[in-house]
Amino acid sequence: MELTCRPLTLHLRDTFTIARSSVDTEEVLVVEVDDGGVRGRGEGAPVAYWGESVTGMADAVAADGRALLGGDLRDVEGIARRLRAWDGPQGAKMALDGAVHDWVGRRYGRPVWRLLGLDGVLPPTSFTIGIASVEETVARVQRAPGFAVYKVKVGGPADLERLEAIRSVTGAPLRIDGNEGWTFDQARELLPRLRELGVEMVEQPFPAGDLDSFARYRELPDRLPVFVDEGCKDLASVPAVAGYADGIVVKLAKCGGIREAQRMLAAAAALDLRVMLGCMIESQLGIAQAAQLGPLADLVDLDAHLLVSDQPFTGLGLDAGRVVLPDAPGLGLEPAGGAA
C-alpha cells in the first residue's frame, strides 16, 4: 500500500470575512492511498481556531497514517475506530477517512452514497455571503442567482442593513451565521426584524462557552431556531446541545470524516435535533465527502467549492441550487485536466 499527501492552496473569489477573521486563500491537505492498483483520494481542511494547520496535518499523516489504515482498506469500521482514538488533527482524520471511502467505492465499482444505502439526492444548498459592505453584499447575491437559500455571515457592522438590502433583490429564504459574534442583547433586539425579513434560522450566534446567552435566548417568544457549529465537534458533544439549541452543524473537518458524521446524524435524530451539513473552505473533493451524507441532513450548506476560483478536482454538479453527486465509483471526483 502506498500513502502520500500534499498541500493544496485554494484562492477565494472574494475576500471571505466572518466575525473573527478574513481570508483570501486557504490550504487543504489531499491524501492519496494506492493499493492493488486502485487509488483513493481524500481531502482534509484544518480548523484554524483549534490551532490546526496543513503542515501539522501532513506531519501527522506521515507519522501515523499507515498504522491507522492497517493492512486492509476494506475494514472501514476498524479504520474509523482507530481514527476516533487517535489524538491527531481532525482535518487529517477527514482526509484519511475520505481516501478510504473513495478507495472502497472504486474497488467495488459503486458510489459511496450507494454503499451507505442512500439515494444520492441532497436538499438545496445555501450559498454563503461573507461580511462586506452593503453594496458589495448585494453585488455578491446578484452574482450568484438561482439559489434556493442564502446564508449570510453576520457579526460585523450594518448587519441589519445588509439583510434588508439582500431582501430587496431576492425573495429566497435567508439563514444567518454569527460565528460567535453576537451578544444576547444584540440577538434580542434584532429578532423581530429578522423574522420580518424571512430569516429561517441562526447559526452559532453566541460564543460556544456562553451557555447563559443560549439559555436566555431559548426563553424568548417567537425566537428563530438556533443551530450550533463551533460548540459541536463530534458525537460526544451532541447530547449537550439538545439542552440549549434546536440543531447542530456537522462538518467533516471537525468530526473527522464520513463515519463519525454518520454517527452524529443518527444521534441528532434520536435527540430530535435538526442537522445542517456544512463545510470549511474546501475543493470539490472535500465537499464531495460531506455530500455523500447529504440525503440524511435537514439542511445543506455545501458551497465552498463555489467560493473558490480553483477547481483542482471535478465531478460535482449543480442543478437548481442542489449539489449533484456523480453516479461514479467512490466519491466520483477526478483531478482536473485528467492528471493522475
UniProtKB/TrEMBL annotation:
PROSITE patterns according to UniProt: MR_MLE_2 (PS00909)
Cofactor names: Mg(2+)
Pfam annotation, one family: MR_MLE_C
Mandelate racemase/muconate lactonizing enzyme C-terminal domain residues: 134-221
CDD domains: L-Ala-DL-Glu_epimerase
Gene3D superfamilies: Enolase-like C-terminal domain, Enolase-like, N-terminal domain
Enzyme class: isomerase
InterPro entries: DgoD-like, Dipeptide_epimerase, Enolase-like_C_sf, Enolase-like_N, Enolase_C-like, Mandel_Rmase/mucon_lact_enz_CS, Mandelate_racemase_C, Mandelate_racemase_N_dom
Keyword Transit peptide: no
Similarity comment text for this entry: Belongs to the mandelate racemase/muconate lactonizing enzyme family.
Name of the protein described by the UniProt record: Dipeptide epimerase
Upper taxonomic lineage: Bacteria, Bacillati, Actinomycetota, Actinomycetes, Geodermatophilales
